[in-house]
Write a structure and sequence with these properties.
Helix 1 runs parallel beside helix 3. This protein is an all-alpha fold. The relative contact order is 0.17. The chain has four helices and no strands. The longest helix is centred in the middle third of the chain and has 20 residues.
């Protein structure tokens, strides 16, 4: 089984559906057995859903893309 650190390193790509089926299976197994990573996964999915479905504001791509890039880079970097 993968470690939490390995999960964090792959998490951003997992959310964007950019991992191989084998890696996806390992990540899903880990998150099913690790409460900390499960909370991270659940809260991230809920946040994405709230933001994408709220429709309360639209940001121009020139503003949103750098924010998304920073968030994804932070997720890839793992816990501090």
């Amino acid at each position: 089984m993968i470690t939490c650190e390995e999960f964090f390193l792959e998490f951003a790509d997992y959310l964007e559906n950019r991992v191989s089926p084998e890696v996806r299976k390992e990540l899903e197994l880990h998150v099913s057995q690790c409460r900390v990573c499960q909370v991270l996964y659940d809260s991230s999915c809920k946040t994405v859903k709230i933001v994408t479905e709220s429709g309360s504001f639209d940001l121009p791509k020139s503003v949103s893309d750098p924010i998304i890039d920073r968030v994804m880079a932070r997720l890839r970097a793992g816990p501090t």
